[in-house]
Amino acid sequence: MLKRKEFIIGAAAGLLVAVVATAGGLIRWPGMDGSLLSVSGPITPSAGAPDAAFGPPPGAPVSFADIFTQVAPAVVQIDVRTRVPRQAETFQIPGLPFEFEGPQGEGESPEGETTLGAGSGFFISADGYIVTNNHVIANAEEITVRLADNRELPARLVGRDESTDLAVIKVDGGRFPYVSFEESAEPRVGDWVIAVGNPFGLGGTATAGIVSAKSRDLQDVSSNYVDYIQIDAAINRGNSGGPTFDIYGRVIGVNTAIFSPTGGSIGIGFAIPANTAKTITDRLMRGEQIERGYLGVTIADLDPFREAMGLEASIAGALINDVTAGGPAARGGLRPGDIVVELDDAPVSGATDLTRRVGAAEVGDTIEVVVLRGERRLVARVRAAKRPSQSELAALQTPGRRPVPEASPGQALAGLTLAPMTPELRAKYDIPAGVNGVVVVAEAQLGPTRFVPGVVILQAGLSPVRSIADIQAEIARARAAGRDEFFVLAWSPDGNGAVLLDVPSRPAAQPQSRTPATKQ
Fold first, then answer.
1. Cβ–Cβ < 8 Å for 383, 365
2. I need a surface site. Which of 52, 339, 378, 478 has the fewest CB within 10 A?
3. Could you tell me the sign of the dihedral formed by the alpha carbons of 339, 344, 348, 350, in that order?
């Protein structure tokens, strides 16, 4: 699984160190001073060791040079100027080696500092349409495109889609060299690929490798709509938005991200497949807004929780953790803890499947949702709304910092200290009127999950919780079934969460006192 701290979005801001250093005379490339011009006559390459065979393996190209020469003119460098809001303390922009210090000094802009970033892109039409990543041009105040012949042209944003991290920009002019997306020929694991782009601001750079894997889920919001191609051709900061080519010069993907514990390439890169990129960019070029259906639920895959909930292995679906108040799902009668097993008469395989199929719905469509609620199978009809932007959703889901509330007396069970809901506890922990269950009244760290006073256990297994006895009953069911874990759904001010708790050991049997036998 990709850990978020190790998942590096390539070149959202980019590094211009090499460009600046070269322009400033800090880096000298071979031949810049004309020293190589003194070399004359033929240069004879070494043939290597006697009788040593040197040739490509079967199926490999002798060289990628012809392919690069063919496609490189369509690849561009994208320079962006963005403004970063001023803060009261020192802060650093990810991907840039500059620090800015606050508070604002005399004569400085109250809107914040201007920063530079760089990425890649490529022409997909002769009249100047260019594909890149959304994160390359997000919040850009100025976009400049540097062509392969070093011309610089101003560009304007045509459209972007946060959910797939794609964007289209345009420069004025015509007869630009361009490349096309390959939709019919599906790349295979092991096929050769070439990545072309602008790593670290160095300009047109080619790297080669193979398709390492397909249909990768990056555990990122974009993976809800993209099955990524994994490649081992080196891509680094600044390659974002550049093309991945096959050996015929066809675009099979848009380079987007790398997996790296260091920030540099370790041979694990990800590209948006051509069929996804073409569908989105065609719509953006037509001036369409990318709208997706929305239910207003927070969901998780059922797989990690199925056994602990006591469900049969054959049951698949998506678990609803939370329902947005006043949203389409709430109006349609869906509740936290429901398990979505069908959508419009077709089975739901998991959370990603549900998200994509809801996203494909037209705004205003009525969707038939079949859920498991406890032992019952229910049908809800929900009218799809327009999905908010990723930034809007992220703002809604960002937890705030809160002090740990004061503990209260309670009963120890399964590593938690619990108490029945009372008006006093509801008021003390500011628990909304519609939230019912058993209250956690002391802080506890159970594996990766931290419980603080005021958290409410809403559900245990498949049943709602109204008393501590309900949790004890679920523990007894888990023991009887031979399970090591049981499922709970918990409310907190930051949203609901599904948690697996260890089934506690049975209390040791207490020795019974006996009356000594008396001889008669």
1. yes
2. 52
3. negative
Handedness of CA 330, 335, 336, 342 (dihedral sign): negative
Using pLDDT thresholds of 50, 70 and 90, give the confidence band for residue 112: low
**Encoded tokens for 407:** 């503990």
| 369-402: pLDDT as tens digits | 999 999 899 999 999 999 988 777 776 665 555 6
* Residue bearing the bigger pLDDT, 260 or 35: 260
| DSSP structure string for 154-177 | EEEEEEEETTTTEEEEEES-S---
Written as six digits, the tokens of 418 are 């619990």
Neighbouring CB atoms inside 10 A of 314's CB total 6
The C-alpha atoms of residue 509 and residue 511 are separated, in whole angstroms, by 6
Any bridge partners for residue 454, and if so which? none
Percentage of the chain beyond pLDDT 90 is 59
469 has pLDDT over 70: yes
Give catalytic residue positions: 135, 165, 240
Q: How confident is the model at residue 260 (pLDDT cuts 50, 70, 90)?
A: confident
Contact 135, 238 (CB under 8 A): no
State how far the alpha carbon of 141 is from the alpha carbons of 77, 116, 157, 481, in Å.
Answer: 17, 10, 10, 61
CA distance 120 to 76: 6
- Amino acid making up residue 245: F
pTM value surpassing 0.85: no
